[in-house]
């Protein structure tokens, strides 16, 4: 009897980690890795940082070369999209019509960038989720104007680098819609490249949903000092002009309109210039950084819960033989006692490995369902996936690092340890317990101590004392 393969859907960091863990765990049968992009698995965080800046080229983002993948003996299906999954038979349907019966499936399809109606038909309006999207935006930002100002520590006034509208030298007017993590990171890169940047958000404070208003306020001050214009409001639409005098091709963006009530960002912003008194933000380029949606639209089987990602138990299982990992997975975190979904790089790798380990354990327990496992492989046991969440964000020369849960906190205590050195610390609480911590400018030893404090939620005051002792130790 031919051994059915294990299929990993998503040639992502999580998918690659799962494939490698399956081989390490003893799976000797066929192993299929399916990716909808034409590229080998690559690292996504540098897309909005080093790659966009031009410091790195695409090859540096590649997680494995073809030679490094060869020992995995993969049936590698790049440029292929899964369009359906029959849970009862563990059968995948691919976009070419092929049906692939599997011993098990790991879903690591990640998320897709949200957009606005009609944006895909306007030249100069971008999203940033894939390598190709990042390269397209980088090409438009290349050969920018003068460097950004030196920031808060220097005491330079906002906009001191010369960001007047219509500046020469390839400088462009970039409007970023969305002031979350991605929007803030791209704003920093674009300013360092010398472009004029306006950052628009529904929330008045950048990254407030991720890190709270206290830390977000410090980030807002940093961006203003670097010359970024901050604006609050909802986008009401775009203004366009013909792509060329003949009127052929897609229209190009010339401005972003904010709904009435939006807060203008200063010079170059026309209040009341749009319909109904809307503000008008002139733009040569627009980045839509308005969040993402889990890539689950292809999972229509009613046996699966796809509300805000693919719902899984504590073992990352969505159904018998069906597991999920990375940005797409919403699983029961055993420590925090509720379903969580993280769009963070470290979680992708750790959860990919956990999903693979637990799938192999399930297959081993069902005997004949796992004929591809080696006879000498140890009998594994399923283990709950209980990571300490971690994320980081690089903006200018500021690096934020956080452990635990910072979003959704009902109590935040932020302390600026050294403004000139950009050293800060914030503790996040929920229901009387400390659940997260964020720091900038702290040495690695102190960061490790902060992680240890937050690994298991502690009563607020106990965690506060331990955090104080950890940072006082130098």
Detailed description of the structure:
With 474 residues, the protein is of the alpha/beta class. 22% of the residues lie in helices and 27% in strands. The strands form 7 sheets. The chain has a 6-stranded mixed sheet, covered by helices on one side. Strands 23, 24, 25, 26, 27 and 28 form a 6-stranded antiparallel sheet that branches. Strand 4 and strand 5 form a beta hairpin. The chain is globular, with a radius of gyration of 24 Å.
Strand order of the largest sheet: 3-2-1-7-20-19
Low-confidence stretches: 145-168, 265-277
Helix content: 10-25%
| Strand percent estimate | 25-35%
Specify Rg, calculated over alpha carbons: 24 Å
Count of individual helical segments: 9
- Coarse morphology: globular
The overall pLDDT average reads 89
Total strands: the figure is 28
- Termini separation comes to 63 Å
Coarse structural class: alpha/beta
> How many strands, what sense, and barrel or not for the largest sheet?
6 strands, mixed
């Amino acid at each position: 009897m031919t051994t059915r393969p294990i299929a990993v859907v998503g040639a992502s960091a999580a998918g690659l980690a799962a494939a490698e863990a399956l081989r390490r765990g003893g799976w000797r049968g066929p192993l299929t890795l399916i990716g909808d992009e034409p590229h080998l698995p690559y690292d996504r965080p540098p897309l909005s940082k080093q790659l966009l800046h031009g410091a790195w080229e695409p090859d540096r983002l590649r997680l494995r070369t073809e030679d490094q993948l060869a020992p995995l003996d993969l049936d590698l299906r790049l440029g292929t999209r899964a369009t359906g999954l029959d849970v009862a038979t563990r059968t995948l349907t691919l976009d070419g019509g092929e049906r692939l019966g599997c011993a098990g499936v790991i879903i690591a399809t990640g998320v897709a960038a949200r957009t606005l109606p009609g944006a895909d038909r306007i030249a100069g309006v971008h999203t940033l989720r894939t390598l190709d999207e990042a390269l397209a935006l980088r090409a438009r930002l290349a050969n920018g104007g003068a460097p950004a100002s030196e920031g808060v520590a220097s005491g330079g006034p906002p906009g001191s680098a010369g960001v007047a509208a219509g500046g020469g030298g390839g400088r462009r007017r970039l409007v970023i819609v969305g002031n979350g993590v991605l929007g803030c990171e791209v704003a920093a890169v674009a300013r360092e490249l010398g472009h004029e940047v306006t950052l628009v958000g529904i929330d008045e404070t950048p990254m407030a949903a991720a890190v709270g208003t206290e830390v977000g306020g410090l980030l807002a001050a940093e961006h203003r000092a670097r010359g970024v214009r901050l604006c609050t409001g909802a986008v009401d639409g775009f203004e366009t002009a013909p792509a060329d005098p003949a009127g052929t091709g897609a229209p190009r963006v010339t401005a972003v309109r904010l709904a009435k009530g939006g807060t203008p960002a200063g010079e170059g912003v026309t209040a009341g210039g749009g319909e109904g008194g809307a503000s008008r933000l002139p733009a040569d380029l627009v980045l839509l950084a308005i969040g993402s949606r889990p890539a689950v639209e292809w999972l229509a089987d009613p046996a699966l819960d796809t509300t805000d990602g693919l719902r899984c138990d504590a073992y990352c299982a969505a159904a018998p033989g069906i597991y999920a990992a990375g940005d797409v997975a919403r699983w029961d975190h055993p420590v925090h006692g509720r379903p969580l979904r993280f769009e963070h790089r470290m979680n992708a790798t750790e959860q990919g490995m956990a999903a693979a380990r637990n799938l192999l354990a399930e297959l081993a327990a069902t005997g004949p369902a796992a004929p591809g496992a080696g006879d000498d492989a140890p009998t594994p046991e399923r283990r709950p996936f209980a990571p300490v969440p971690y994320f980081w964000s690089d903006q200018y020369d500021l690096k934020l690092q956080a452990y635990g849960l910072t979003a959704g906190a009902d109590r935040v205590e932020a302390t600026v340890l050294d403004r000139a050195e950009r050293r800060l610390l914030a503790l996040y609480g929920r229901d009387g317990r400390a659940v997260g911590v964020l720091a900038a400018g702290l040495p690695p030893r102190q960061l490790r101590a902060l992680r240890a404090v937050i690994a298991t939620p502690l009563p607020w005051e106990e965690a506060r004392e331990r955090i104080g002792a950890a940072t006082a130790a130098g």
